Amino acid sequence: MTQHLSDAEIVTPVARRRRLTTLATGATLVAILVLTALLAPLLAPFDPNAQTISARLLPPSAVHWFGTDGFGRDLLSRVIYGARPTLLLVSLILVLTIPVGLLTGIVAGYLGGWTERVLMRITDIFLSLPNLVIALALVSILGPGLLNGALALALTSWPPFARQARAETLALRRSDYLAAARMQGITGLRLMSGHILPLCLPSAVVRAALSLGGIILSAAGLGFLGMGVQPPTAEWGSMVAEGSKVIFDQWWVAAAPGGAILFASLAFNLTGDGLRDRLDTRHGN
Fold it and tell me: What is the mean pLDDT of residues 221-244?
């Protein structure tokens, strides 16, 4: 027993420092990304849409840190401004998916019976659909654009939240905590919103943070295929598509926005991993 306690005393502080470091690193990177998007007019050295044909496809230099693209536009400025539509698209998707997923999962888990069966079968149908393929189909019908892209990606992004919320609600349904609330006359919508929802939110936040990296890649995929934000607006996916045409000779045109996508995905993945370690009780917190 003494040895066991000694090991716990040695491991726990190290694990706690690792969790704090992961969360702090991810949160710092996300803060940098958000500030870059907010302060884009102050940080960008050039107009992101200004074309200078005489300066097209210039390599990275002291004037153009990331080089220029096929229209002579400064890539650093376009990468900075490209953070704006990406973060806006991600925010729209989260606003649409988290409430729908939580509402579906909590109602299904709390009511049970035929309501649960119907809601979960609908969830399974959407869960089986490939995200990007369905998003492409919907965008081709609705038309390219930021809002349509967000709606298309949100349509197949909410089922994991519903599944997780249902599982947690089922575990809580017969708990002493909810039994005490029912004894006080709290039932129905008031019980779900005031007692079940707060307990499901931490895991939903963690799942949202962990899924943001995939959402960013899907959004970039829409832009790469020309179904996202339309030119000349700076968007990382469409910039990679432009750079892929000259990737063997002018590699920096695709590398600059590709690096930005990698940075954003890494930032949210680290944040999600840190939040999971911090909020999940199974990790010893």
Answer: 85
Question: What confidence tens digit (pLDDT) does each residue in 168-203 have?
Answer: 898 888 788 888 888 888 777 888 888 888 888 888
**C-alpha–C-alpha distance, residues 10 and 8, integer Å:** 5
CATH of residue 81's domain is 1.10.3720.10
What are the two backbone dihedrals, phi and then psi, of residue 280, each rounded to the nearest 5 degrees? Answer: -80, 120
Please report whether residue 104 resides in a domain: yes
The answer to whether residue 8 is domain-embedded is no
Judging by beta carbons within 10 Å of its beta carbon (0-12, 13-18, 19+), is residue 136 exposed, middle or buried?
middle
Asked whether the whole model's pTM tops 0.90, one would answer no
DSSP code for 280: -
CA atoms of 92 and 124, how far apart (whole Å): 23
| Beta-carbon count within 10 A of 208 CB | 22
Q: Structure tokens of 39?
A: 């302060």
